[in-house]
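2024-03-11 09:14:02 INFO worker-7 job=invfold-0412 stage=load source=structure_tokens
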């Protein structure tokens, strides 16, 4: 295969000629000229302005999204604080933002104690305190580690952005409804109402992780 440098028609000139020809034929909507293309993140127009406004809260030079598809010992309620503390200590003049996306089996981390007790999330999501299923959210506030501000509710208070997957809420509330012979929509609405104040419902966790990266976040797997 010939390289761009050795080709009789350099690649950039070739693409430029295609773009010019397309413009002459009125086909510019079907041909992409890389040099003229806007960055995708600048021209995104969300169907839900409130959701995009939430993403817009990310600020600062240093941004990281923590992708949590499982409870995984509550690490998604710990690592964002570690990130902010150490980044702030290392680069004190350059503040940053941390975002956590709770999806798949991590969604109960976003919910308050009353829902854990009523729907037995400890059993449903295999979260234990000692040898017994948890009857409350054990990662809402974490006090047994030598760092301040750990836990989902503590992260929210300090400005960490936390999103929860709507697709997972739908799937798991539907499973709970089937088991309890209840209405799925009723259970889902109760789960959404029982989220910690400040948690944002996102269309899907994978979508939110991708959008965060489009907006400049580095990626950390927390599941």
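2024-03-11 09:14:09 INFO worker-7 stage=emit residues=223
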């Amino acid at each position: 295969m010939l390289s761009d440098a050795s080709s009789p028609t350099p690649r950039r000139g070739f693409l430029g000629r295609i773009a010019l020809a397309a413009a002459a034929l009125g086909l510019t909507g079907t041909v992409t000229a890389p040099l003229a293309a806007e960055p995708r993140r600048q021209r995104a127009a969300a169907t839900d302005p409130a959701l995009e406004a939430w993403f817009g809260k990310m600020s600062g030079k240093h941004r990281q999204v923590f992708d949590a598809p499982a409870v995984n010992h509550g690490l998604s309620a710990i690592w964002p604080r570690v990130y902010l503390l150490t980044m702030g200590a290392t680069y004190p003049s350059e503040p940053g933002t941390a975002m956590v996306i709770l999806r798949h089996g991590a969604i109960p981390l976003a919910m308050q104690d009353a829902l854990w007790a009523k729907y037995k999330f400890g059993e449903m999501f295999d979260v234990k305190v000692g040898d017994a299923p948890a009857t409350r959210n054990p990662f809402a506030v974490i006090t047994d580690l030598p760092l301040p501000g750990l836990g989902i509710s503590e992260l929210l208070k300090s400005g960490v952005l936390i999103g929860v997957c709507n697709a997972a809420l739908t799937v798991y509330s539907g499973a709970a409804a089937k088991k309890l012979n209840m209405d799925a929509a009723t259970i889902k609405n109760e789960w959404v109402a029982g989220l910690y104040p400040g948690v944002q419902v996102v269309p899907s966790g994978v979508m939110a992780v991708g959008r965060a990266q489009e907006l400049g976040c580095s990626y950390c797997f927390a599941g």
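2024-03-11 09:14:09 INFO worker-7 stage=report msg="Residues 111 and 195 are 4 Å apart (CA to CA)."
2024-03-11 09:14:10 INFO worker-7 job finished
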